[in-house]
Amino acid sequence: MSEALRVGLAGLGTVGGGVIRLLDANRELIARRAGRAIEVVAVSARDRYKDRGVDLTRFAWVDDTTALAQQADVDVVVELIGGSDGPALTLARSTLNAGKSFVTANKAMLAHHGYELATAAEAARVALKFEAAVAGGIPVIKGLREGAAANAIGRVYGILNGTCNFILSKMEAEGRDFAEILAEAQALGFAEADPSFDIDGVDAAHKLSILASIAFGTRPAFDSVAASGIRHLLGADIAEAAALGYRVRLLGLAEDGPDGLFQRVHAHLVPVDHPLAHVTGSLNAVVAEGNFVGRLLFQGAGAGDGPTASAVVADLIDIARGEYGPPYAMPAASLVAAATADSGERRGRAYLRFTVADRVGVLAEIAAAMRDAGVSIESLIQRGAMADGSVLVAIVTHEGPERSVAQALEKLRGSQSLVGQPLWMHILG
Hints:
By secondary structure, the protein is of the alpha/beta class. Helices cover 35% and strands 25% of the residues.
């Protein structure tokens, strides 16, 4: 058996500890599959003396995280610090410039700097691996990059944030509103104290930009992802969707077409007979549609120490075997800087929810705005008055261009009949 692959590990949080425990627990199996042992030899984190539940005395401690890249006895660096810039990016650049392979779970860094890092890795002829950056333990990166490599991918979409899916599943099961479920999720540790990255769709947008790059051969383009989240959803929206035969899911969706790359993270109504409608709790799921393989569904745990550590170690096994390949499925020089597609030209059906004053003429005003913008209404539902005296009105549209819906909502902006902003959800088709 060849000499061990020697690993420098930066970041000893939940996932970092999980990597060490996984390598300890499955040491012999991993060595047999990799063709050689994989050993952590050096670690770095902010607090040297914090109890992390694993024995760190057997590893060299490096106070300056960036210095891991210069350690003579380190072959590959694993970065589990997080953040799009700062120490994580400095470490990535230093590692690749030192001619060493780099493994990361850092979706934000890849979304912003992935093209630069892929170019540097290919120039240095080393590996840049990031299976853990998207959907935790689900091998979706490998599935797209290798398993579906012969296919032209028409569309990739899915549930990319476990926190949002947990909240939506609880709202669905218990009939409660968003704010109440979010507070519970924070108490249970499923949501951060500041949950903005999750509930506003930013985390999912980071992941979507990575998936789109691999699926379509484009440069990661996080800035062109139109992202919105779930913070304005009501329990009534979930109930209305169910009555119409749908479940609400926050989806990231990307398509590459003749007018450019389309990327969006948005709440969708998903038909109950679609596989994504049955993905509940904190699970993630990704669907890719290939021209020869058809629909592929990847589903599993999207976060947590075990699943994410599993993805990190899978990357290390590839490196130990000498399996590198271009990070984004094709050489960085071949990745296209795609134009951003105009969402206004997209056609589909929509769910619109208005909170309105309970008075004569309100429905007529909304219907007139829809008519004038060319939006065809399939159904209009008005529910009873809420505690504050306002009324919920839900509209499902026939298929039509998104620009028309946007124009209708603009016509209603500032209307004295509306209480708060309307909610727009797309219907997955």
